[in-house]
Amino acid sequence: MKKSLWVTLGVVLLLLGVFVWYKFFFVFGEGVKSGYLNYAIKKGYVFKTYEGKLIQEGFGRGKTGSITSYEFEFSVSDPEVFKQLELNSGKTFDLHYKEYNGALPWRGNTKYVVDKIVNMK
User: Where are the transmembrane segments (predicted)?
Assistant: First the structure.
């Protein structure tokens, strides 16, 4: 009886650990987004995180032939990358990001985390 209880507890803890890893640490996707940097800010009540927004232009589902904009909100993991973004707001950036399945409070407010600047114009 005691042995089966410990085995069950071990399996539950293992499954919980796998779920937490998949939800918060597994990199679901990564890539590069380009656009104009709208803002780069440091904010938060307990955990001060770096956040930003990129405005992407392109043809969308609006009126035929019209140009619409898409917003890409992201968090920044590296303070040096944030410093570059903060000093060059309004410029065009190509940002490399990692997409996670969930956000952690100390990592940022979004599931998209920018880890480096590929290009700046």
Answer: 6-28
